[in-house]
Amino acid sequence: MKIMLDAGHGYNTPGKRTPDGMPEYQFNRAVAAYAKKALESYQNTTVYFAHDDSRDVPLKERTDKANNLKVDVYVAIHANAYGSTWNNANGIETYVYPTKPKEASELAQKIQRNLVISTGLTDRGVKTADFHVLRETHMTAVLAECGFMTNRNEATLLQSETYRKTCAEAIVKALADQYKLKLKPKTDTNIPSPNTSILPSPLSNAKGLYKVQVGAFNDRKNAEALINELKKHGFSPFIYFE
Predict the structure, then answer these.
(1) pLDDT, tens digit, for every residue of 143-183?
(2) What are phi and psi of 42, to 5 degrees?
(3) Are 42 and 73 in contact (CB under 8 A)?
(4) Same domain, 135 and 207
(5) Residue 137: CA atoms inside 13 Å, Cβ hemisphere, count?
(6) Residue-wise DSSP of 15-61
C-alpha cells in the first residue's frame, strides 16, 4: 500500500498564514509527520511526502510525483481560511474531485467523520472542488481542511501539538479502516513465566547448588528493579552481594 501525504503550501507561501502570523504550512507539515509515523506501524505500507520543507513545491510537481510513484491514495492536508482577517467562519470540511470514483468519496466521508468526532468542531461536510491535486492525480485523492486559520479559537488549536496529533490520528484511522490496514506485530519483550515442564529434575545425589543468574549490577536500585519484574512473572529471586 503506497500512501502520499501532501502538506499544502510552504513556509513562505504568500497569504497562507493566520492573521497573527503562523504559516499554514507549519500546521500542515506537523500533521503529515505525525500521520506518517503512525502509518509506518502498519504492515505493507509505504508513505511518501509530496511536500518539502525547503520550498513550496509546485502543484504539478506534487501530482507528477504521486503519479510516477503509482501511489494508491493521495491525502492533502490543509487549514482553511475565510479572507485574511479574524472572523467567525469555522469547522471541518473534506474535498474530492467531482468525477473521482466512489472510493474517494468513501475515504473522504471517513476522514470527515473522524476529524469532526475527534476535534469537536463544526461538520461542514464532504464537498467537491476542482483543485489541482484532486483533478490531476491518477488515484484516489482527498483534501482535508482541518479548521479555520481566520477563526481565533481554531487558530489557537492549529498551533497546538495536541490538536495536530488528533488530526493526524483521525486521518490515519480513516485510511486504516478504508484499506483494512493491519498493524505490524509487536515484539514480545516480556520475561516468560516459569514453565516447570522444561526445568531439569533435581539430582537426588548431587552435592551443592546449581545457581542461575539473570543480572549483575553496580547499582542496587537496578538490581531491585529486576527483582520486582521477575516476581511479577512468578519467580522467587533474591539479591546476593559479593
Answers:
(1) 999 999 999 999 999 999 999 999 999 999 999 999 999 99
(2) -100, 150
(3) no
(4) no
(5) 33
(6) T-B-TTS-BHHHHHHHHHHHHHHHHTTBTT-EEEES-BTTB---HHH
Strand partners, 101: none
Query: Cα separation of 141 and 63, whole Å?
Result: 10
What is the predicted pLDDT for the residue at 212?
A: 63
Angle at 26 between CA 24 and CA 30, to 5 degrees: 120
Q: Does residue 210 fall inside a structural domain?
A: yes
Instruction: Please return the burial class of 67, using the count of CB atoms within 10 Å of its CB with bins 0-12, 13-18 and 19+.
Output: middle
What is the spatial distance between Cα 126 and Cα 109, in angstroms, rounded to a whole number?
6
- The enclosing domain of 124 has a CATH number of 3.40.630.40
CA atoms within 13 A on the CB side of 97: 18
In this predicted model, what pLDDT tens digit does every residue of 31-86 receive, in sequence order? Answer: 999 999 999 999 999 999 999 999 999 999 999 999 999 999 999 999 999 999 99
* Domain that residue 12 falls in: 2-178
Instruction: Note the pTM of the prediction, 2 decimals.
Output: 0.78
**Res 232 pLDDT > 90:** no
Q: Is residue 162 part of a domain?
A: yes
Which one, of 10, 75, 25, lies nearest residue 45 by Cα? Answer: 75
The residue from 128, 148, 178 where one domain ends is 178
Asked if residue 183 is part of any domain, the answer here is no
